[in-house]
Amino acid sequence: MATIPKKLIDRFTKTLPKFQKVLQIAKDRDINESDTVSILNDIVSELLGYEKYREITSEFAIRGTYCDLALRIEDKVQFIVEAKAIGIDLKEAHMKQACDYGANHGVQWIILTNAIKWKLYRIRFEQPINYDLVATFDLLKLNLKTETDINLLYILSKEGLLRNVREDHYEKVQSFNRYVIGQLLISEPSLTTIRRELRKIASGLNVSSAEIADMLCAQVIKREILEGDKAEAASQRINKFYKKTTRKTPDKKNVSKPTKDTPLSESVTDRLLRESVDQS
Questions:
Q1: Residue 267, in any domain of the structure
Q2: Residues of the domain holding 217
Q3: Is residue 10 assigned to a domain?
Q4: Are residue 203 and residue 76 in the same domain, yes or no?
Q5: Of 46-50, 106-110, 125-129, 147-151, the least confident
Q6: CA distance 191 to 213
Q7: Residue with the larger pLDDT of the pair 175 and 79
Q8: 214-243 confidence digits (pLDDT tens)
Q9: CA 66 to CA 139: how far, in whole Å?
Q10: Predicted pLDDT at 51
């Protein structure tokens, strides 16, 4: 992943504790969905860096239905945000609803959140429409002293979007799963390595790569890892990589339009912070 700008890390460090406090108060009060969306609007603006009333909108209609929030850059929607009340557990049915929104408008990236739990999905436009979970985190538990947690915010931030960080992260996620590992185990380079090591263990042992592959498929690797759409996709990914490496020659040297939303005199975020001070 690209180096994160210091200015962005400073913003995360300054802003995240504020919203962790707000979200804890909101969770304790079990606020409704409307107030949750209001807090989300502030999080997306202040923490993730999108411009309010220009890049964050609640007026994005898909087949006559408005999604909770949409994040758009230069008139192109980059994320659809499906929001639930802060006390609602995120479920598969919620994602399917958001997936329908994205599929109907050609938006590939979906955020499902209750402001505390965040799930990032990437839609696969195939028949039938499917999707992959790319990242998930709990905003209350994020620790900016760890590189992993900083990267999670970076993926969703405006700065990360402009650097295409989400696609880079997606490629890494797609390359590290049980299906890819299973296909790597039965690839020729792995079989050659296993064959060589077996000869070291038992001098004179003469088994072919095909025999090793048969044993791996029949007795070592679960059948579900080697069969089905995900296994086929993993196989294609690995084959594409090996074809690319064999062809590779040696190196010679080592802004959107404003929405009709209008700012409130006091946001839900500010109200919760003020009330917490008044009660202390």
A1: no
A2: 178-247
A3: yes
A4: no
A5: 125-129
A6: 7
A7: 79
A8: 999 999 989 888 888 778 887 887 887 787
A9: 25
A10: 95
Does residue 195 lie in a domain region?
Answer: yes
Task: Note whether 13 and 147 are same-domain residues.
Answer: yes
Q: 260 falls in which pLDDT band (50, 70, 90)?
A: very low
Examine the domain organization and report whether 45 and 155 are in the same domain.
yes
Tokens of 30: 């079990």
Whether residues 152 and 192 share a domain: the answer is no
Dihedral sign for Cα atoms in the order 63, 69, 72, 77: negative
Using CA atoms, how far apart are residues 221 and 216, in angstroms rounded to an integer?
6
Residue 276 lies in a domain: no
Higher pLDDT, 100 or 161: 161
C-alpha distances in angstroms, 119 versus 59, 152, 170, 216? 22, 11, 13, 35
Q: Are residues 193 and 58 in the same domain?
A: no
Task: Please indicate, yes or no, whether residues 159 and 235 belong to a single structural domain of this protein.
Answer: no
Residues with Cβ < 8 Å from 72, sequence gap 6 or more? 55, 57, 60, 78, 256
Give the best-scoring range by mean pLDDT among 89-93, 176-180, 254-258. 89-93
CATH value at residue 57: 3.90.1570
Tell me how far apart the alpha carbons of residues 115 and 86 are, in angstroms, rounded to a whole number. 6
* Residue 244 reports pLDDT greater than 80: no
Please check whether residues 138 and 193 belong to one and the same domain.
Answer: no
d(CA 39, CA 110): 18
In this structure, of 5-9, 38-42, 116-120, 243-247, the range with the lowest mean pLDDT score is 243-247
Residue where a domain stops, chosen among 174, 191, 214 = 174
Residues 64 and 137 in one domain: yes
Q: Which range among 7-11, 41-45, 201-205 shows the weakest confidence by mean pLDDT?
A: 201-205
Q: If you search the block for the tokens 């309010």, which residue do you land on?
A: 52
- DSSP symbol at 57: E
The residue written with tokens 């009709």 in the block is: 260
User: What kind and span of H or E run contains 97?
Assistant: helix 92-105
